[in-house]
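Budget justification, computational time. The allocation requested in the original proposal was used primarily to generate structure tokens for proteins on the priority list. As evidence of use, we reproduce two of the resulting records. The first is shown immediately below.
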Amino acid sequence: MNLFKKQVKFVSAICPECKGHLELDANLETAFCQYCGAQCIVENAPKKQMKHGKLETVLDFFERQQALRRQDKQERQRRIDEEERKRIEHLKKFWWIYSLIFIFTLGFLMILSLL
């Protein structure tokens, strides 16, 4: 009969600092990351594996906002590029008309200068 032997139950977790894999003793309240040395609180780890704190929630919000801004910026740039492409296509399509107008205007000005 071993009264002093305590069964150790290990829990898998992720370090909040370096995102390294941790194996934690569920009976302890704190542990240290073997990769970066950060102290991790494991009091509720077996019950709630990845509960975010207020800071993580705010950071997640800002990350989502930045992603939305990047998408919006990419969409605006795509629209600008599309408009530029259409403008160039229009110029290519009607270059001969613009050339004729220029030639007739130049010819008209030459005739006026001779008078």
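The second record produced under the same allocation is shown here.
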Amino acid sequence: MSLIPKACFFTGHRIIPANKRNIIKSLLRQEILNKINDGVTVFISGGALGFDTLAAEQVIDIRGDYDMIHLCLYLPCHNHDISWNPSDRQRFYDIKSSADEIYYVTKNDYAPGCMKKRNNAMVEASDCGIAYMTKASSGSAQTVRMAMEKGIDVINIADINYDEIYSDENFFQ
């Protein structure tokens, strides 16, 4: 048994289509459980809206049954949430208060390039990744490419054919 914990990063789009949110949450939960079964104990979220938020909330929920897992937030700067609406900001603060560790990639306020630095730091700290990526030109796509260049496996749940896997329409209700 290795003493070095295995880590998994999350990356994905900020906007999640409402009609796919429950499917994505279910697939995300299953992939997190798969990673736990593979020995991953550290999950890294970038603290962004959308997929990062869904992923962090799933880890917090699953942690109730798997107390050996940890949620780490890799935040790009101290004020990256400054323009968020109050409900998104509260959701973020709830996640932040439940995180086991918070790492600020920069010690300053938002500046160009801090998101890319955050993404690079998450990849550098991870053994694998889980993504929700539907656009080839995005920060998430760039993060997945960084990981692949380093030989890090990334599961893109957007590539999973939901209809083939879950033919039961009541599965997500």
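A brief technical remark on that second record: Helices lie at 21-37, 51-62, 86-98, 114-124, 139-149, 162-165.
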